[in-house]
Design a protein that fits this description.
Layout: H1 6-23, H2 25-50, H3 56-73, H4 75-80, H5 86-103, H6 107-113, H7 118-121, H8 129-132, H9 141-148
Helix pairs in contact: 2-3, 3-5
Length: 149
């Protein structure tokens, strides 16, 4: 690029920008997502190994559920690139359902352990939807909570 001068240099930069932001946007987004998922996965594995021994089994199930969800969301990519076999892909739904069934009895304790409150678990429409929609709430829970008191 040192041999390129003035307007030519700008044209090269514009071409690179177009390639990055327009032509390869799907690839850029996929790479960013994959990198994020890898970081999340690494931190999860690290935190699980450092957790109390009695918590590790349920945390590992949650972690595996997360990993299965990632695979399911982009299963076409994994299959077409031979990163997963058809047999393993077909088994994902069963594994997902099994893990959900195993985790379900612990869901309230898990929610509490992660600091998820009752309010967070309840959608406004699950309560008094007429009251919730009787004013311009702009989706804000705090106004609804004030009316409910």
């Amino acid at each position: 690029m040192s041999n390129v001068k003035g307007a030519d240099k700008m044209a090269v930069r514009a071409a690179r920008f177009d390639l990055w932001s327009k032509t390869e946007q799907d690839l850029v987004q996929a790479a960013g997502r994959a990198y994020s998922e890898k970081l999340i996965s690494d931190v999860c594995a690290e935190k699980i190994s450092a957790a109390d021994a009695e918590l590790q089994p349920i945390l590992k199930k949650l972690y595996n559920l997360y990993l299965i969800t990632i695979l399911q969301e982009d299963i076409t990519f994994f299959l077409t690139n031979n990163l997963i076999t058809r047999r393993a892909a077909a088994k994902l739904r069963d594994d997902f359902n099994r893990l959900n069934a195993e985790i379900a009895p612990h869901s309230l304790a898990l929610a509490e352990g992660f600091g998820i409150t009752e309010e967070m678990l309840s959608a406004p429409i699950a309560r008094d939807w007429e009251l919730y929609n009787s004013y311009n709430n702009e989706g804000e829970m705090s106004e609804y909570e004030d009316l409910a008191r």
